[in-house]
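Q: What structure does this chain adopt?
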Amino acid sequence: MRAGSLDRTITIQSRSIVEDDEGEPVDTWVPVATVRARIAEASNAETQVTYDKGGRTRLIGDGGTASIVFRLRFLPDVTPDNRVVYEDRTFDVGEVREIGRRRGLELRCEELPT
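A:
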């Protein structure tokens, strides 16, 4: 993987539980690593969302899902439980693939609704 092709900056986050000021547990996302990556694929497919209740199916509306594949240098412990932040957009990691023998990672992600 050539360093010149890693032209984007992404932040990988992990879910963590911390205590707030009153001592209550709060679910939050903590940055694990900020790394250089490249976009291998990107798509924006529009899908129809339907709702089935009592045997009836009705159209709620059209929704769009953005999918993106990031390639980056190998990082241990990156799993589908993580998420990626790229250009103020948040993506759920759906699949993590190792490229070669610990040379790189391919993260297949879907954008989370805001």
